Amino acid sequence: MAAVHMTLQEIAKRANVSTATVSRTINRVPTVNPVLARRVRRVIEKEGYYPNTHARALASGQSRILGLLVSEITNPFFPEIVETFAKLGFQHNYEIVLGSISQDPRLLAVAVRQMIERRVDGIAILTFGGEDPLIKMFNARNVSVFAVDRDCPGPLLRTVRIDYEHGIREAVQHLAALGHVRIAFIAGPAHLKTAALRKDAFERCMEEIGLQVPPGLLVEGDHTLQAGVKAISELASLPDRPTAVVCSNDLTAIGVMRQAFELSLNVPRDLSVVGFDDIPLAQFMIPPLTTVQMSQIGIASIAFRALLNSTKVQAIETNLVLRCSTTLAPGRLRTVQHWRA
Amino acid sequence: MAAVHMTLQEIAKRANVSTATVSRTINRVPTVNPVLARRVRRVIEKEGYYPNTHARALASGQSRILGLLVSEITNPFFPEIVETFAKLGFQHNYEIVLGSISQDPRLLAVAVRQMIERRVDGIAILTFGGEDPLIKMFNARNVSVFAVDRDCPGPLLRTVRIDYEHGIREAVQHLAALGHVRIAFIAGPAHLKTAALRKDAFERCMEEIGLQVPPGLLVEGDHTLQAGVKAISELASLPDRPTAVVCSNDLTAIGVMRQAFELSLNVPRDLSVVGFDDIPLAQFMIPPLTTVQMSQIGIASIAFRALLNSTKVQAIETNLVLRCSTTLAPGRLRTVQHWRA
DNA sequence: CTGTTAGCGCGTTCAA
DNA sequence: TTGAACGCGCTAACAG
């Protein structure tokens, strides 16, 4: 029985050329005699030859592999990113290895080791927390890194600035305009930089328009559905409970809506809810979730391009998208009715 | 400037042993003198040496890479699978390369080529449609494949039988018991075997209990949110519209609930809805979605174990999990009230 | 138990 | 323009 995989040599033999010519043909070196090239291609086609990537990587020193490190693939925010990152990879003939799909630090360590052993040409670290040591480690090994919200980029560290404040300001002012005063914020995990920035932006935007945010209305979550459930339960039991809540991500907001339903709080009548991310499911919630959009596709493509050396620095916008989970504050509603009568 | 990556040779030199000894130490060959082994390990540790996977694969003929081909990573059904598959991979020191994350056939072709070039040791193809040619292709290259619902497994084709019928029967009988008679089914794409099997099971289970399913109540979708929206719009405009609908997956069901809201149909009062898959979000819908559970973790681990040669054949169960999206049929409700009065 | 050595499949010089 | 030969970093005989 023949070997399952052809090799360059066998192709060369069958095409009556040297291995060098086959190699050149495959790599589209322009100086190859077109006649020979065609002959080689025919043989490759006929034999169903696929070059061995490991041998290529070994000989060339380039793996053509990009790593993608993602914190929680079960958060619907990430699959979008994975999808477009992988698509771009395929288009540019890069392979993508996916790492550390969950929070487990042991698995993270394994993933990182695998990527180094695999000699990835670059790596995108998305929405982690504690990525600093990782970045140092990769850079020390000469592999370039993309990460969000880093302060001092360099030749080996690419980044993008995300303007959280714009979208969050829109959200806050939208709620204020609807008459809300007691507006709560359910934050993400404190160690996550992106979460901290969102929280800061919220506080700043509240202050801008002279609104207080008492400590009780600022609760920390962890960007999960459960966090939303828990947070709104606490918030709802407050003596002076909020009439609106802004969440650090959509998953949290969905948890809030779900638990509000359980508590017989009607969204938006009794409680206005705003999310963050605009995951695809947001518009399919009941009611459809008003949220701050941050383009997943945008982030993924910037990450990819950054790793491919296009140094063009860009920024990511965030914008409020109005749907149906917010409305007039309860008090405001009554006033209007009164005035009408 | 020193080379960024150490090599086996350099480690050997620094540890005063041969490369073979270093290699044996790394691969935990038990016959290595513990003293030497320790010395080698110290050097490896000190120098931060990571073996080059490509060289290893080339020399050993084993890539220790498993492929995972998934049709739509943005369907929340899949991230769970990816996560547990990858976790198991990490635990067994396998790398996972993720392919064809979307429906685009061009990208699928690229992904397949990459996997072959990468000489994956095995591949799991999950919920595709048109996987037969892929299976043949991989098997011809001597790589073993795992796929769901295949008829004739063999040494190179592992599979698992999924008992769709059990869960779907529970769903149908649950609805029938609640007094529903006009029960619609929103199917998945016809070319998808798993979708076809679900539809067949539904029809059989209806017939079993003497319920008709007129052609108009059997509509084909494509397992997306949009498909649910579209299908329920059609169904709702029927003169004799269904009082309950079973969906071929949860995404479809969520689309149905969303559009029902738009049409002012209250779920479950006016329309009972049952999903299929039990994605994590199902219980966070409003109302929480009653659905047929099919364990994503179960499927992923069976796939992984099957590829690791544990030939233990297993089956996957499906079971109805009752939540709040179903209730008595409208007629039945009135009868009860009448009888009470 | 250890070291020497020959490849694994490919890219890439260097001559021709 | 083409081909012969070497080396990428590692594993696996084989000999000692």
Would you kindly provide a written description of the structure presented here, covering whatever features stand out?
The structure is a homodimer. With about 350 residues, the first copy, chain A, is of the alpha/beta class. Chain A folds into three domains: about 5-50, lambda repressor-like DNA-binding domains (434 Repressor (Amino-terminal Domain)); about 65-165 and about 300-315, Response regulator (Rossmann fold), CATH 3.40.50; about 165-295 and about 320-340, Rossmann fold. Chain A is about 45% helix and about 15% strand. In chain A, the strands form two sheets. Chain A has a six-stranded parallel beta sheet, sandwiched between helices. In chain A, strands 7-6-8-9-10-12 form a six-stranded mixed beta sheet, sandwiched between helices. In chain A, strand 3 (about 120-125), helix 7 (about 130-140) and strand 4 (about 145-150) form a beta-alpha-beta unit. In chain A, helix 1 (about 10-15) crosses helix 2 (about 20-25), helix 2 (about 20-25) packs across helix 3 (about 35-45) and helix 8 crosses helix 9. Chain A is elongated. The termini of chain A are far apart. Mean pLDDT of chain A is about 90; it is low at about 335-340. The interface between A and B is large, with 54 and 54 residues. The structure holds a DNA duplex (16 and 16 nucleotides).
